[in-house]
Each structure stands twice: as C-alpha cells, then as structure tokens.
Known about the structure:
Helix content: 40-55%
Amino acid sequence: MLLYDLNQIEMQILEQLESEEGIDKEVYEQLKLNEEEIIVSCARIYRQILSDAQTCKEEEKRLYERRKRLENNAECLKEKMLEGMKMTGAKKIHRSEFDINVKKNPPSLRIDNEGNIPPEYFKTLAPILDKSLLKEAIKSGLNIEGVQLVQTERLEIK
C-alpha cells in the first residue's frame, strides 16, 4: 500500500529505484514538465522510499526479536538436556538422526579481582580523536594543517 498518491511515471521510477539497474533515463525524461514539478515528484518518491524503509526496519526488529527468543529457548532446552545427562550419568546418546555427547569446554579464566593482576597483562588502547573538542578549537581560531571547518548543505523535506 502506498503512503503517497504517486502517478504512473513516479511509480515506474520507484520500481526502478528499487531494482539494481537504477532509473531508466527515458522514464526520467517524462518527468521534465518543469523543474519544480520534477523536484516535487522526486520528493513524493523520496517519502515513499522512506516509508518502505521504515516498514523494513520494523520487520527487521520483529524478526530479530523472534530469532533471539527462539535462540534463547533452544539454549535453555540444551541446558536442560545437559542437566538430565549429568543426573543420569550418561556421556553419550546415539540415535539414527543425531548423536548427543557431553564434552568438556576448553579451560577459561575466572577472575575474582582484577586489582591483583600485574599491569603487563592489560592492553592499552590507542588515543581516540575528540572531534567535538577539535571542532571548537578550530572555531575559536586554532590553525592545524590538514584540518578545516567545512559547512555543507542538505535538503529538508517537511
């Protein structure tokens, strides 16, 4: 369902934008009624694309949450199976469709107090550029070679 009332040519452009090839020049030429109409038509298409993208984003979120729920349920079931095998003392179960084995994990560290660990076992992070601080310094007149304050333009559709 379209959020905006798109005409035939705008629908063709929308379909072509969603394809891998992009906009066909012949279809785009049909929009050349006048420059303002072209911009208004493109704004309609822009809003429709944003609406479709929002729908995709909501569906991604719903599917992500469902996937996480299914993964958590599967992990919980796996933990219950491990508990059951430990209680019965079974180390292996063999069936035609799969084998179930209790295996030992590789050794891992359990650290109770990091304060007791010598400093040579810690990684040091590289310095991170504070762009906000640098921007304020450049605004106030600091001159650093290779650093400039630039102001670009954007299109706003309300």
